[in-house]
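Illustration: Protein BatD.
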Amino acid sequence: MRIISTTHFPVMRMARFLAFVCLILSLSTVKAQENRNIRTSVDTTYIKIGEQVQWKVSVEVDSTDQVIFPEGQTFSPLETVEAFATDTTRKNDRLTLQKIYALTQFDSGSYKLPTQRIEINGIGYFTDSTMIHVETVPVDTIAQKMYDIKPLINVEKSYMGWWKYVVIGLLVLLVLGGLFYWFVLRKKPLTQEEKEALLPPYDRALLELKRLENSKYLIQDEFKEYYSELTTIVRAYLEEEAHVAALESTTGQLIERLELLSDSGELQLDKDTIQQFRNILQTADLVKFARTKPSTSVAEQDRKLVEQIVVKTHEALPEPTEEELMQQAEYLEELGRRKQKRKLIIGLSTLAGVIVLGVLIAGFKFGFTYLKDTVLGHPTKELLEGEWISSSYGFPPIILETPKVLVRQEVKLPPEAKANIQDIQAFSYHSPIGLFTVGTTSVTMNPEMEAPFEQTIEQIIQGFESQGTKNIITKQEEFTTISGVKGIKVFGSGDFPVPNSKELVKGEYTVLLFGGKGFQQNVILTWLEDDTYAQDIVDRILSTVEVKTDV
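Result:
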């Protein structure tokens, strides 16, 4: 007898409960699906090339339900021409939603209209699939003569829109030039401080003394600030106008220097004026360091005396010679040139900084290699980002998208090949810079002859070797087009020769082979190994390859 612990029962009950819940949910889901009345229909299952099939879907739901119908090209291999607006019919609390899609196909054959997903309240429901048969349009070759396909004509690239780029470039240059002039070259209006700084020392000192007279220092009993500014004005004037080291000198040192200049005749100041100046400086020292407070009248009188000292000093100074005036003018011009040069350097440095910052931001966002290739140009990048062309080449036709039109190549059949091969049609494009090439070949053979894939692969590899390619690596796998046609993909790498040079470069290649009885179709691509743009081109071309097997 097996003994089961009682602690297992809660677990077993939980498991049974979960199983019961899952069963209920599954039953409710089935019921919900049954309650969703989804009907589909087509107006016909047989059309001619280019005609349209109307696929109709109707859904009966509650008025509160949310329904999402298919959008976009979900009917491939059929193409959606138009999705008509949803038609809504209400009956009590039920809604009937009806939507019609116009579909078509431009190639003959039988195509499966795939199941479509109808989403109701977040739950997907799938419709049934339907076979659509597309028939060719019969051509009366007796009444209408048949002509061979005209050869491709090279058309010069149009430069009609070049003026747009010129206008944009000029506008950008104009904006940058305007900004540079406004912030660097333009003579900005001088501020009041700058205007006062350009005044002669004498006029500036009198202006500052006048401003001190109208200040509120004395009203607010700020004698220390008053005398500090008063002595600074007169000291700065003496240092700049009389060339006396006044700002860094003590009162005794400054008076001593003035007396020496007066005794030597260089500064014609009388002793009374120097004594008055000494008294003012001593009063200022007492106010600043001993915190004494003279009367307001004394302070105002001291300012007037300083103004007289400035006037007498100015009158005592000898008139500047013509040479001194010239030196002063040259000095001012030099200052202007230095200022302009400094502004120019700042402007150019700012512009360079903005450019470097922009390059760094763009480099980190898009990659420096991509940025370099965008600015300096890159042949395969221009091909990748240019206008692509979708076309059909040869017979049986090979349909693919390429960045450039493939040009027909003249192929001469050797006499020994004419017994089995009826016709060869080849088209190719070769980039003038780099290794990138793309080519197609359509071969029509005797009706009972199978496509010689293995022999073709060997001939292509031998062709690479005969052109000087070394170290060829070959791989092989199955390839399927977007319409389901199966073929062979041969790919690999090697050291390819550079035209007109003995140099070898690392390259890659891909060969697609399709065919059957009486025909064979080939697509060949080569490109540089490290060329990411070329790899993107190849991937895009391979995703668009389509072949027709009618011969």
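Reading the tokens back as a structure: The longest helix spans residues 322-366.
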